[in-house]
Amino acid sequence: MLDAIIIGGGHNGLVCANYLAMAGKKVRVLERRNIVGGAAVTEEFHPGFRNSVASYTVSLLNPKIIDDLKLHEHGLEIVHRKVNNFWPHDDDNFLAFLVGSENLKAEIALFSQQDAESLDRYFRDTGMVADLIRDFLLETPPNAGGGLRDLFKTAKFANRLRKLPLEDERIVLDIFTKSVSDFLDLYFEHEYVKGAFAFDGIVGNYADTQTPGSAYVLMHHAFGEVNGEQGVWGHAIGGMGAITQAMAKSAQEKGVAITTNATVAKVVIENGRTTGVMLDSGETINANVVASNLNPSLLYNSLVDAHALPADFARRMKHYKNGSGTFRMNVALSELPNFTCLQRQTRATENHLTGGIVVAPTCEYIDKAYRDSKEHGWSKAPIVEMLIPSTLDTTLAPQGQHVASLFCQQFDPDIDWDKHREAAADLIVEQVERVAPGFAKSIVARQILSPLDLERTFGLTKGDIMHGNMSLDQMFSTRPLLGHGNYRSPIKGLYMCGAGTHPGGGVTGAPGHNAAREIIRDN
Questions:
Q1: Are 364 and 181 in contact (CB under 8 A)?
Q2: CATH, domain 2-32+262-320+470-522, list 3.40.50.2000, 3.30.530.20, 3.60.15.10, 3.50.50.60
Q3: Which of 134, 126, 119 is CA-nearest to residue 60?
Q4: Which residues fall within 8 angstroms of residue 414, CB to CB, at 6 or more apart?
Q5: Are 317 and 297 within 8 A, CB to CB?
Q6: What is the pLDDT of residues 260-313, one digit of tens each?
Q7: Gap between the Cα atoms of 18 and 381, Å rounded
Q8: How far is the C-alpha of 207 from the C-alpha of 211, rounded, in Å?
Q9: CATH 3.50.50.60 spans which residues of the chain?
């Protein structure tokens, strides 16, 4: 008899399995695909060309989890981008987010001296909030209707906020309630500077820069670190699959059984308690505990009999909000892209191609892309972030050739993507071609993942990379639903360990870590 079954072998499921095994539990991971890793996988998409297929960059993976699972000992190597991001402009100039605060100040001063002088205040304020968030990442939120323990948690969190000066309390309120545009107006004046910072507020967030709460999405992408250094982004040698392969090796070393090509058809419930799962083959596997790494709407609307759920819970989960507006492509390239702005500015270096290359220079550009997508299904001028990981990792492509990720925002998840995917992909290529002439001719092959493809391939409902909107009503104690923000479902023995729980999306491992702690506490 198993102690626990994990549905879904994505990174959070593997983290949960590791911690349960550390506690002496007999654990089995069931993965629908033929490869473990969920959306954090590296696959060959054209002969000789491999890339991180869905998730594509490292910063949010929690350092405690890296240490506890000994991921570096299991082959994980993370290197830093040499430039974090850069934004090409229509006037053949660009803004780069260079590594190091003084370098970044000098870059921003080229556009606005005032904005350069505001940078210290901005990073102090956002750093203060990021520290608060980090404190809570590996904590289970206080649960509505909970007992004395939850009351103490609420007091602890409230006390942490109460100790802040009034001005810092205002900043915390700003982050959790303001739009990213309104928040950035407190610090910056130049449209290029505000647009660059605003980009993180709409990543995986199908909204414009005016949407209340989008300032928190910016913060969600800002609390990470790489190799102990905060505020930088990294690349896992071998792609994102190197992370989950290291997690799988760590789990198997602890006795965890991992089964691929194992699709769970339903959660088995008897007398109000989970007793295991049934596979689509008809096989039933019994366990004391089932932990789901799936999007909550997929779990409760597809795998759990609605009659086994409280009526109000079932009703609300049918309206759980999904849809991050994401369209993903991978391309094999015969040569590096030739960005016009890098050729015409003497301050450009080859390091700029190691960072994220973002075609979305201003808030106005971002907002128009959103308006277009709501009206037409996708933007006439899409938001594109290109990453060329082969500039840092020679294992991904043949010598002298390259792979690139195209991570694109503001694509309506509800249109017929089987009909429109190729046209949207062509438009994305055209958008890059506009700032890097010759890009289209350099494409050897391309892999297209529309929102529908992301759902079919990875179980990302409506293509939602966050497993549910990161909106105010779906965060912290209300993620996925008020009264169940503590990783427990309404059904005894059934838990949630995926990004649809606190603290949300991104390759953090925190939901899996926290869920394992609660499972161990109960069992």
A1: no
A2: 3.50.50.60
A3: 134
A4: 323, 462
A5: yes
A6: 999 999 999 999 999 999 999 999 999 999 999 999 999 999 999 999 999 999
A7: 44
A8: 6
A9: 2-32+262-320+470-522
